[in-house]
Structures are given as structure tokens and as C-alpha cells.
Amino acid sequence: VRAGGFGARRIGFLAAVAVALLVALVPLLWMLSTSLKTNREITQDGTLIPHSFTFDNYANLFRGRSFGSYLTNSVVVTSASVAVALLLGTHAAYALARFRLWGGLERYLGFALLVSRILPPIVIIIPVFLTFQTLHLLNTRLGLIAVYAAFNVAVVVWMMESFFREIPVDLEEAAMVDGDTRFTAFRRIVLPLAAPGLVATGIFAVIVTYNEFLFALVLTSTPGAETMPVGAATLIGRINVDWGAMSAAGVIGALPIVVFSILVQKHLVRGLTIGAVK
Amino acid sequence: VGNYADVLHDPVFWGSILTTGEFVVLAVTLETVLGLLLALLCAREVRFVRAIRGTLILPMIVTPVVVGIVFRLLYASDVGLTASLARAFGLDPPEILGTNSGAFLGLVALDVWEWTPLLFLILLAGIQSLPTEPFEAAKVDGAGAWRTFVDHTLPMLRPTILVAVTLRTIDALTTFDQVYVLTRGGPGNATQLISIYGYQQFFSFQLYGYAAAMLLMVALVVLVAAGFAVTLMRRRRV
Hints:
The structure holds 2 protein chains of 2 kinds. Chain A is an all-alpha fold. Chain A has helices spanning 2-35, 39-43, 56-63, 67-98, 105-118, 121-135, 141-166, 169-177, 182-193, 195-211, 214-219, 228-239, 243-263, 265-277. The longest helix of chain A is centred in the first third of the chain and has 34 residues, at 2-35. Chain B is built from 12 helices and no strands. Chain B is an all-alpha fold. Chain B has helices at residues 2-8, 11-42, 46-56, 58-61, 64-75, 81-88, 100-128, 133-140, 145-173, 177-182, 194-204, 208-237. At the A-B interface, helix 1, helix 5, helix 6, helix 10 and helix 11 of A face helix 2, helix 3, helix 4, helix 5 and helix 6 of B.
């Protein structure tokens, strides 16, 4: 009886997992397959594997449209804002974790930073839009970098603070007795110990920033500053029925972040769940 | 101040609040149930778990705008996967995005596809970090799988579930990108979530004060929910 039950459970498990994997993958494969079909084949009855492969849909994205510059903008904006945020955020997080402010203010400071992450972006965007209008930061990569860096600083501080708290103070104090300044002790002792948290936080920030759409949509409207998600979405708005171009735009739009995820896959799960599981 | 009064008397505002509420409740419930089921299934499978996780993560990494594109390609009444499947079974292709309930449920399905993996990841980590002793004891006592789940797994997992659901709810309340690409709130107002409505009031109709008043009220609600979530997380950490 035992063995039979085990076998049935095993089959049930495998079937459920197979269904889950199919459901996760088939929609993405459908987009990939559509992007490789000619427009004539797309409108015929669909098969998952194209009969005649074509890369025309992709070539058109880079020839007639600005997908090359969307890609550059996305990469520049994402890497610059995450780098700035990690640099500023780790220091701020360390300060919040180690120093006491007047009246226990440090606790409220941490929460205040978090608010900017939790508030619906659509709420924050109205004042940002009006401010950028005055400062002539609309349609610039610098403007986007500033906004994303601000968001990411909040994320980095919030996550890294708890990592720093778990590192025993004795280690730094010992180093400082041996002649380190607090800053060198932070760099030599604390930062390496917090590296796993730093990596996970960085991964999380890169994914969220690359994928961000609303701010980029509102704050940019020229190919000189528009990011990949905006480029893909506005293309869709204009073409409507050119399914080949639409699916190619989708594939190209998602490709950089999927490639990034594969590169960092060892730390990916931690990066994605860091806010909740930590 | 007049703006606030106007908002409160705007039936479309209340309509989109209701739509958002229905969307969040339906989507997050489905995601939690499915995510929990998957996590329970995979919890003891050491060998497969990495590959399964690696694949299931994909939907939540793919750019939300692109997820909108993916589902437009699925739902398209002429060239979509659903249409092709329907024809293969000799049925008429369904007009998913053309009808009110079809578009709304289609949007829920999109959200479930995209975010069940997050619930799965969080709950899986939660299950794997549970102590093993209670389960061994339950086995010795001869408890069945269902009893063990109700008596031990569920109570111990409750804080994790609560955090995961709250996090997901906060994010779901401000869903924007996917709707923008999939339906733009249509047909009619069937998928007009509050973020889409606010965006339109502000950028299409230039009603700055009105939109600001509306969104501030929404923000207040979200903040209260978030404060609740943070308190929960803090308590867990201690």
C-alpha cells in the first residue's frame, strides 16, 4: 500500500509541476515564436514553432525605430542610478544601524525613507513632473537617474540597515583599537561581511529600475532619453496590429533583464525575496 | 479643498476604486492559494527545486510592459494563442479583450501569471525554514498529510503568509504598466484601475488639482496598509 501511494503521489507531483512550468513558459515562447514569423504566417492558424524563420521584425526595430538608443538609455540610467544608490545607501544604512540620533530620531528616519518606496508612484509623480518642468530636467537621462537613485537609496538603506545590525560591533571596535578610523573599519571589516546582502540588494534594484515604466513614461518623450519599456509601450500604441513588430519589441524589451538574471542566477532568488524573507 | 469634494462625488472615481478592489482581492487570493500549493509540492523535492524555481521566476522578472505585450498576443482574437487553441478544438475564438468581464478576468489572469511566482518563492522559503520536530512528532502520532498541514504547517506559516500577502497587495493596488499596454482601462471602464484613472485625469485632461486630490486619498489608504505591513515585519525580525 505504501509503495503504491508513493507512486501515485509522485505522478501527481510531476504532473502539477509540469503544468506549472508549461503555464509559466508557453506565453513567453508564444511571443518569441510570433516575433520570428512573417506577418503572413502570423495571421494563419498559429503553431508554436514557425515554419519560416525571419529576423525582419527585429531588424526593423533597430533600422526605422530607436531601439538602439532605448537600450543605451536603459543601461546608462539603470547602472548609474543603482551605483549612486549603493554608494550613498550603504553609508547611510551603516550610520542608521550604528549611531543614535537625538531622541531616537534614527528609527523615524528609516521609516520615512521607506515611505517613498511604498507610496504609489503615481502619487509622487505629479510633484516630480512639475518640479522637473521648472528645472528643465524633463527628457533627460540625468532626470531619470536622479529619480531612480532617490528610490533606490531608500531600498538600499532599508535592506542594508538590517544586515549591518547583525554584524557584531566588537569586530569594528577591535579594528579601531588597532588604529583604523571608523571609515576604514567600515570598508575593511563591515562591508565584506555584508557583501551577500549588498549583492542581493543590488540585483533587486537593477531589476526594479530596468523594468520601471510610469516615471520614464511621464518624464521622457524623446528617443534621446526614453527607456526600453517606454519605447516598447509607445510603439505598441502606434502600430496596434503589426503583431510581428509588437512581439519583437517585447522580446528585445525583456531580453536585457532576462540576460542579467541569468548572469546573477546564483543570487537571484535571494534578491527577489529579500524584502520579505530577510 | 473643492477638489476633494469633487472627487468624492465622482461616480467614475468610485467605480475605479471598486474595480481596483475586486482586482486586488481576486488576484491576490488566487496567487496566494496557487503559490502555497506549489510551495508545498516543491518543499521536499530537493533535486528538482532549483530548476523549478529558476523557471517559475521568469514571469516576475520579465518587464511588466512586456508582460502586457505577451498577454495581448495571447488574447488577440485573430492571431492569439487562445484563438488558435479554440479553433483547434473547433470553437469560435473568444473575444477576451472585447467584453467587460473578459477583459477584467483576462487582467486578473495576467497578474496571477506574473506574480504567483513571488508568493511561491516567499512561501517556499518560509516552509523550508520551519523546524522539523513538530512534523516528526506528527508522523509518529500517525497524523495524515491534511491534519499535519492544518495543525502544524499553516499556523507556523501564518506570519510568512501575512507578510507575503500584504506586500503583494500593496504592489497590486498600484498596478499600471500591464493595464496601460493591455487595455488602457477599457473596454468602457472595465479595467480602469485607480492608477490608470489618475494618470488619465492628470496627463490626458490636465486636471492637476483634481488628480492630486484623488491620488492623495488613495495614498493615505495604501500608507495605512503599508504601516501595518512594516509593523508585522518588524515584529517578525525581533
